[in-house]
Every structure is written in structure tokens, then in C-alpha cells.
Amino acid sequence: SLKSAIDLRSNDSIMITPKWQTTWSEIMGEDKSKKSPYWILNNGKKNIFEHTLIYEKLTKTSIKPGYIIHHKDHDSLNNNISNLELLLKDIHDDLHDISGDKNPMRSWYPNASPEEKEQYHERMSEATAREKNPRYSGFTNKKLYKEMISIIKKTGIPLTTPSWKEHSRKYGYIHSFTNFRGKLINLIKKANIECGFEHYDNPALMREYKKFINLLEKSEFELIFNDGIWLVKRCELCGTEFQVKYRERERSFCSYACSNKVSALKAGAVMKEKGKNQREIARKKLFELFEEYVCDNNEIPTLSDFFSYLKANGVNDFRTAGIYKGYQYVLDIITERYTNKKINVRSLRKQPYRKEMATELISKGLYSNHKVVSVVYIGNENVYNGTVDDFHNYGIILNKKKTKTGRPKLGMIFTANCGEQTLESFELCCLVETFPSRHDSYEEFQETLKFAYLYSKSVTLVNTHWKETNAVMLKNRRMGVSQTGIIEAFVKNGRRTMLEWCDKGYTYLQNLDEKYSGWLCIPRSIKITTVKPSGTVSLLPGVPPGIHYPHSEYYIRRIRISKNSDLIELIKKAGYFVEDDSYSPNTVVVEFPVHEKFFERSKNEVSIWEQAENAADYQKFWSDNQVSITITFQPEEANQIKYVLECFEDKLKSASFLPIKKHGYKQAPYEEISQERYEEMTSNIEPIFLDETKDIAIGEKFCDSDRCKVTFEP
User: Fold this and answer.
1) pLDDT tens-digit profile of 687-710?
2) In whole angstroms, how far apart are CA 633 and each of 268, 640, 641?
3) Tell me: the pLDDT tens digits for 87-134?
4) Which residue from 511, 582, 321, 547 is spatially nearest to 433, judged by alpha carbons?
């Protein structure tokens, strides 16, 4: 389940996600030619190849049986989506098959010179000579028998067939006997008997006997071997000695009778503890009811009034709460808790006294649900901005280690960074965006809202492969109809006009939900509207993201593209500036000059108070989920953040703050420029004709083994 960082507590468990390199040979335990390294990570349920995870997540499909994911550049560690291709397994295997006529030796040997053939035969002869020849052993049965005796004396345990095979593979002995040599098991049996051990023809029993010999040295119990391993124990209740099989060694009682007696004793202890807990709960409730009565009636209750109030609220009497003394004892505890002067139970017959004592208790803090005992200054702590461009979820690398074979392994945790939807565990957000600045009237905007609602509501009807997600979606039907380019809409239509659109639009959406939910016979959506931070979606119509102000009136927007994309040549022909990425050798950076048509002020010119007010108004008139906003502030405004949060604490559900300062990065996503620079950059730009690219209608491709398909265009 997901948990906000602010809710994390000591001893909470965070899933650590390891990521490491390995090969097919290491995974399968085979000494084969599949030695290309791959990245593997664990998603909390199983180990999965990184390129498989990337393919399934980005293409939103699962890899069907009979398909292979292939790396186009033959680099098995390059899991860039543009480097991957999905192939049928038969095509993939055929591409890398070197059997038959595809074997390079068939074309090399007939054309080799006599000297090359002679060298080849000499090398093959040397490679299979003497001990290197699998048919050559060089061991007699006598020599093998001596080695078996040596192993048994060295280990102190009987020898078994599997242990001999393991030893022979490790040190070069033989374990496959011909008829001429006789039976291997007979040689092992003879060696065991000579060393004083029993030998059993049943392999399972022989393994048990070997385990018995090992346990004799380290077990704290008396052991017996009788067609299996037995322990001698004493009953923890009656002290009788009894025997129990080793696999049942946790058994502590000699019979069901003793076991049932202990269970009865434990049940009594449990009931006693349960009664104690119930009395503590009732005791706590008793004092809460006393405080509630005093606060509601502004007087101390008499004994009869207090008993009636207790019974009406589920507490029968003082004994139910574990109090075996009278009402005076309860009053003494109350007065001691609030350092009040003693309340005399006999004086409670007089109403003025009851009211006087109640006033005294309330003045000591009875009416408050908390009291400040002390304030201690701890100090300043660093705060880290956990925002990754275009992504809500991101991984934090905790450590870098090595696998057993020396390959890199990363330990990671994943965080959910979502500020616009108050999701339950396993719930989906079902977001859809609208662009109010692209409308000239409310009627146009309302028509867009209807189609946005229908799309988002339809998504809530689709089942997922997680039953937990299906359950919470069936219950809540949560949606997130969002707006983006809001500041641009303020400039174009007016701030008050947009807030009126929001108010009318929200009512319209609620009416739609009542109608369509009734038609579909499903619950109404628990929440419908939101303001998401937006990003790539806002780039399509060219509006500022979400409720944020634009970077400037004229600026450069940089986009990163893989070097093997067909788009690059088209972009260059259109006159856009393209250069190599300073941080990635396989990527280029394209610069797009941008002019904000509806521009009044940049984010550098707007105070934190105005930004917070914009978010508060949209929280009031539009969003029943949340308004996601990152409030930017100048250095001199930093000391005002505390007061902004105090003033808007009951108007905003969430907000983050980001200082405006120079980042120092090369090729930043945004760079402010002058009008002259913008006009210079756009003077030679021509339209891009995307119908010339080969990227159209081609899905993302992958590779799933050490072999990759190479496709050549005719």
C-alpha cells in the first residue's frame, strides 16, 4: 500500500527494490554461450528483466508467449525504448541460428589453406588429449576405493552416491561405471562398512542416517536412529520421558491430555488479559464521559446523575471500569489530574457548589483536548524537492553494491509523488484535462466538460488485473476532470469570469454524474474535479502547465530525442537547432523557440500570496479533490512562507514551495530569451512534414535475450 512521507513512523517497513546485472548462464546455472549481461530488478512480487518491465509499462501491453524482446544495437544493457524491438521467437532464433549451412566453419574449412587446416587439427588434438578427453579416466577401482575411504575419514560421516558424484565432478574422478567396473553403490557400501558406519540401500534412509551422524555432534537432545531420527524429550507439564520424530522436535508434551491442559491454562490467561483490556477501555471511557458531562452541563454530576449518564453510554457501573471504590475515588483522580482543589462528594447536593467546581475544572484545562507542556527548539533541517519531470513516481537509489559475480546491483525504494488526488490504497486517479483558454464562451467550455466527464467515467467502468483496485474503484468511482493553461485563461477571459465558469461547470458535472450514474446503475463518483500539475499534455496545445505562471513571454523549450529517431533529420530540415546532449551520448537536444500569446507576467513577477490565492480560489470553486501547485518564491519571500501557510491552512489541501534561483545546468528545459532572439530563431523555420518519418504507426520494440534482430531497409 502507499503511504505519504509525512505519515512514516519509526519501525515502518519500506520496500527495498534491488536492481542488479546477471546473465542467462548465471540464472539457469548453465555453462553456455549466453553471457550477455542484463539488468534485473524486483517489483515487490518477483524478479523481472528491466527491459521487459519498460516494454510492458510504456506500451501498456504484456508480452505474449512466443515473443522475444530484442536490443537493436546489440547492447543488452541499453534499455532505451527506442533501442528495443518485439519479435516472434522463431524469427529471433532463426536470425541467430548457426547450425547447418549457417555454421561459419562450413564455408571456412573448404577454402582454408593446407597450413591453416594443419594448425586447426593440431589445436583440436591438443584440446582433447589425455585428461581433456571425456572418455579417458585414468582411475582404477582400487584408487577410487581409497579416495572414498579418505573422504569418509575426513568428514566423519558415511558416503552417499550424490555426495560422491559431487566430489568426483569437483576433483576429476569418475561416477559413471561400466559393466566391467561393477556397481558404484557396492563400492560406496564397502567403504562405509569398513569405516564403521551402517549402510542402507534406500537412498532416502541413507540421507537420514548421514544427517543423524552430523546431528550427533551438535544436538542438545539425546538422539536415536530407528528407521529415522528420533529425539528423547521430557514433557513440559508432567515430566514424563517420551520419543518424538526429529521433524516434530518442536512438540513439547507427551500426550494430547497434557497438551489440552496447557491449552486450557493459556485460554484462561487470554480471557483474563481480555477482561483486563476491556476494563481499561471502560475506565478510559468513564473519565471521558465525566469530562463530557461537565463540559456540556457546566456542573459536576451527582452520583445518581453520573450513573444514569454512564449506563446510557454503555458503562454499567464503576466495577465495569475496574474501579472497586466509590464516587469519591473517581473525583480524587479527576482533581489530581487537573491539579484542582478536592471535590467533596457530599457537597454535590448543592447546585452552586457543583457549578463552582465545574468552572474550576474547566479553567484548569478540562475543556481543552490538549495542553502545551513545553516548546523546544530543535534546529533547522534540509528539505529536498522530490519532483521528477513528467513523472509522479520515481525511485531513490539507496546504495550501490555488487552481485556474487561482480556485477552492479542497486538498492532502491519507490515513492508516490501525487498532489492532486486523495487516493485510497490501490485506487486509480482517472485524470482527464481540459483547456479553458481555448474556448471563447462558457457554452463551448461546458460542451468540452461533458465529453471529458464521459471519458473519465467510462474509465472507471473498466476492470483491472488487480482485485484490490477493482474493489475500491467499484466503491468510489473517483474521477479527476482537470484544467490546464489556467493563467492563460485568466489573461484571455478575466479572472472573475473563469471562477464563474468553474462554479457553473462544477455544478454541471455533478448533475451529469447524478444522471449517468443512475442510467448505469453504479454509485456516484465520490469526487470529480481536480487540477493536476500537467506537463507533456500542456505542450500539445502550447499552454502553461496547470495553474502555474509561464516561464517568460519568449523562451527556448528544449526537448531530448534519441539519436536513432527518424525525426531528427526532419527537424534539422525545418530549421530547428539540434545538438548533442551534454549528459547522454545517445541523445540529442532540440531547441524550440516559444512565444506566449496571452502573456502578462512571468513566474518571477508574481508573489507567493497571489499564487496561493489562485490555488485557494480553484480549490473553492472547482476542485473537490485537490489543486496541485508548486509556489515559486524569491529569496526575500522565504520568511513569508510560514504566514502564507497559516493564512491558507483551511483553504488549501496541499501546496509545495520552490525557490527561484539559477540552476547552473547546461541545456535546461526552459531558457528565457529576448524578442529579438526569438525572431532570429524563427526566421528560418519551416513546417515539419511528419508523413516522411518512418516512426509513424511503429510500436516500441524490445529484445529479450542475448540475440538481437537487425533489420535493413531495401
Assistant:
1) 887 776 655 433 334 444 334 444
2) 64, 9, 9
3) 888 887 777 677 777 777 777 778 888 888 888 877 876 665 555 555
4) 547
Measuring CA to CA, how many Å separate 305 from each of 311, 321, 328, 349, 521?
A: 10, 17, 14, 11, 51
Report the candidate in 711, 512, 707 with the shortest Cα–Cα distance to residue 96.
707
Q: Is pLDDT at 542 greater than 80 in this prediction?
A: yes
- The residue from 85, 147, 299, 418 that is catalytic is 418
DSSP for 277-301 reads: HHHHHHHHHHHHHHHHHHHHHSSPP
Task: Characterize the bridge pairing of strands 480-483 and 554-562.
Answer: unpaired
Which of the listed ranges 328-342, 394-408, 467-481, 525-539 does the model predict with the highest average pLDDT? 467-481
Query: How are beta strands 47-49 and 84-88 bridged, if at all?
Result: unpaired
**Residue 240 confidence (pLDDT):** 86
Whole-angstrom distance, CA of residue 413 vs CA of residue 395 = 6
* CA nearest to 442, candidates 369, 395, 494: 494
Q: Which grid coordinates belong to 163?
A: 555426495
In terms of Cα–Cα distance, which of 533, 539, 544 is closest to 623? 533
Contacts of 36 (CB under 8 A, 6+ apart): 23, 24, 76, 705, 706
Is residue 414 scored above 70 in pLDDT? no
Q: Helix (H, G, I), strand (E, B), or coil: what is residue 125?
A: helix
Q: What is the per-residue pLDDT across 481-514, written as a single tens digit (0 to 9) for each? A: 999 999 999 999 999 999 999 999 999 999 999 9
What residues pair up with 465 in beta bridges, in sequence order? none
Q: Is the pTM of this model over 0.85?
A: no
SS3 474: helix
- What CA–CA distance (Å, rounded) separates 653 from 670? 29
Is 605 one of the annotated active-site residues of the chain?
no
Side by side, the strands of the sheet bearing 241-245 are: 222-225, 229-234, 241-245
Query: Any bridge partners for residue 416, and if so which?
Result: 393
CB 88, CB 66: distance < 8 Å: yes
Better-scored residue on pLDDT, 259 or 644: 644
* 295 annotated active-site: no
Q: How many CB atoms neighbour CB 162 within 10 A?
A: 13
Contacts of 444 (CB under 8 A, 6+ apart): none
Considering the candidates 420, 553, 591, 596, report the single residue annotated as catalytic. Answer: 420
- Residue for grid cell 472573475: 496
Pick the closest to residue 483 from 430, 529, 423 (CA basis).
529
- The beta strands (E) that lie in 151-285 are given as 222-225, 229-234, 241-245
